[in-house]
Amino acid sequence: MNSAIDHFLADGPAQLLPARELMAFTLGSHILLVPFGVALPAITLLMHYRGLRKGDAVALLLARRWSAVMAVQFAIGIVTGTVLSFELGLLWPGMMGRWGDVFGLGFGVEAWAFFLEAILIAIYLYGWRRLKPWTHFWLGLPLPLAALMGAFGIVAANAWMNTPRGFDLDASGNPVDVDVRKAIFTPMLGPEYWHFVVGVVLTAGYVVAGVYAVGWLRGRRDRYHRLGFTVPFSVAAILTPVQFVLGDSIARSVFHEQPVKFAATELVWKTDTHVPEYMFGRLHPDGTISGGIKIPQLDSILAGFSPDTEVTGLTSVPASDRPTATQATIAHWAFDIMVTIGSLLMLLALWYGWCWLRRRDLPRSRWFFRCAALAGGACLLTVECGWITTEVGRQPWIVYENMRVSEAVTDTPASSLWVMLGIVVVVYVLVLGAFLAVLLKMSRGWRLADEGALSGATAGDVEGDTPYGPRPLSTTAGVDGGRE
């Protein structure tokens, strides 16, 4: 660790390390909320549609409760996302000042989608008991589309940083003759975007299903918990093999478009054919690899479907133009953790699918539900690992092969950045702690509402006093309206 820090300090100005740590912490915290901001609206509307289509009061109750979680999550996302927006300009003025006109449109698209999503969430929450059931549903349908549009803007900006296109350079190295279309639709946009979208949807699905898997393990075997588990888990299980294929596709795209990053994630030191695959392991500065599991020729086969495929090594470029051994090891471990968790989730999805096809029923083993309860947390870990692979594997470039991270960093004193990091950590701990506390309070309230419903009251009556001021109608009113 000390040697890595010494390397960072020696490789650039003193403010480089705290700027990196601040950006890493805020982005790493915000990215945990992204799956719910992007995918939870779609899962909620899927449950909402089921409730209206089948006149299912339980499905409508689940959709209404998930929409409340969606609103709370969106409010927290506003805080963490706004901080990131400021940090891009404050911490990396060199990048934004020189390249902002080239790739900044992606951030504009994300901001526009963000405001649209806020309006749509407000309409969706307000309309539960004030709009006709199907009218309410159709007004909510653009919500996941707005979320996907926001994700498109951010991923487009990141894809440009990985494969910058759409400009020429003048004699001073500044971009000219900007082609916005080419700057947005870069070679990595498609692979990154679809891998991201499918990843966040299945992550949200596994997390939501995991909540009801815990309830199932605690003996709550009612239809509420069964339906709350089955719908999101089915979505995630269907998308798991799709994500596995997309993950392989994006790795191959990196092989073609960013060969040095590919070499870092696969610990390839020298350009060669018949390159072995290492599962985990550690790269040393002299090119040797210790630990891990070596699988002969597999890396060449995965890269080009043949052991004769030549894989570019880290030594193909000067040491100053490639990730360090420590950075390569970090990217490699993050990538291997993603692959390992993805493989385990594939087995879990196959287990679920086999039982459903055979008996049209959930697996009966408690071990299945234990694994399902852990799947959401594992997916959140893969989201973090995906970001680490993308960003650390690109080092030392902030704009691949055009601008180094050290050239983009602010000239704010390092001491000020360390103080800012401390403040942000405290604020984020408080904000995320409040988020979890609100969710737990909501969960306890819903459990009490369900217990009250069993004793004669209705869950809808208990939920009548809500901040967004619905008119208290019976739960069956929405169901009857759904049948029309």
Which helices and strands appear, and what pairs or packs with what?
Layout: H1 2-11, H2 16-30, H3 34-54, H4 57-91, H5 93-103, H6 105-126, H7 133-140, H8 142-162, E1 168-169, E2 175-176, H9 180-184, H10 189-217, H11 223-257, H12 259-266, E3 277-279, E4 282-283, E5 289-290, E6 293-295, H13 298-304, H14 325-359, H15 366-392, E7 397-399, E8 403-404, H16 405-408, H17 414-454, H18 459-462, H19 475-483
Antiparallel strand pairs: 1-2, 3-6, 4-5, 7-8
Helix pairs in contact: 2-4, 2-17, 3-4, 3-7, 3-8, 3-10, 3-19, 4-5, 4-6, 4-17, 6-7, 6-8, 8-10, 10-11, 10-15, 11-12, 11-14, 12-14, 14-15
Structure described in brief:
This protein is mainly alpha-helical and 484 residues long. It is built from 19 helices and eight strands.
Give the % helix.
over 70%
Low-confidence stretches: 1-10, 456-484
Spatial order of the strands forming the largest sheet: 1-2
Distance between the termini: 65 Å
Count of distinct strands: 8
Largest sheet: 2 strands, antiparallel
H/E element sequence: HHHHHHHHEEHHHHEEEEHHHEEHHHH
Shape: globular
Structural class: mainly alpha
Question: Radius of gyration in whole Å, from Cα?
Answer: 24 Å
Proportion of residues in extended strands: under 5%
Mean pLDDT: 84
Supply the number of helical segments. Answer: 19
